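hey so u asked for the seq, here:
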Amino acid sequence: MDNLRIHLAPLARLYPMGLPVQTIGYNDHRTVRTRKKFFAFSISIIFSGVGTYIRKRRTWQIAAPCVLIKWPDESFDYGPVDPNNVWEELYLIYDPGSQTEFQRRGLVNPKVNCWSIRRDAEVRTEFSQLMKLLTSVEQPGMADRIDRACELLIMEACWAEHPPPADRAEEAVRQIQMEVRAHPFAAHDFNELARRHGFSPATFRRHWNRYVDQPPARYAMTWRLREACRLLVETNLTVAEIAFKAGFEDPLYFSRCFHRLQGIAPSNYRARFAHHSLPGK
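ran it, structure tokens below
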């Protein structure tokens, strides 16, 4: 039995922003599994407990704090394995069509079904704020505030590096991702990285495409340019110096790549953001 279950779909939104939550539920003493088909788009935040999450015959071992996604028109089996294990769960139910907007805002990834929460304290803070708002749901404009609070809660829960690896192939992909992010300006040889983890280049790329929504070279370029963003706002290096540091022999080509990713030239990016970061400005 849930401690709390509030249906919000009928409440008027005065300032609709595209992510109206339909139902919010909370159970701080859950000991049974859920085995059913979901027709809505649902997000569960597990604050405590361990267990498994099964989708399409694949099983993930999960441990709180973590997030579970239930996609519409699919069957899921998740919860404690041991009935003596107690879960604390908050679940947010949305219209099935809302998953497109969640993906557009970068809050969910269709290739990712569950992930660990790193910012546990921050998620708890947003959760407490949501619980306060739910005590006054009938007040005008409160449904809008609750929608925003749910979005902030999900955003805080997204500050995980990666979902827990489901198998050796996924673990290898995640480790290579971390290496790219830790050394964004390095010239990464993905064929060599694949062999180092025991995969042929072709097998590695098949696994990579399964877990990452960008090809390896584009992924590396994205993180290289993100590091260039940091140097633009945190250092006094010239655009050309940053281009060479990032491994570009031609600063003009660097500028074109940067503009393609950020929608703005490097010099304009610095003019817009550097005054917030550089000392003495």
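The domain at 168-276 is CATH 1.10.10.60 (Arc Repressor Mutant, subunit A). Residues 276-281 have pLDDT under 50 and may be disordered.
lmk if thats what u needed
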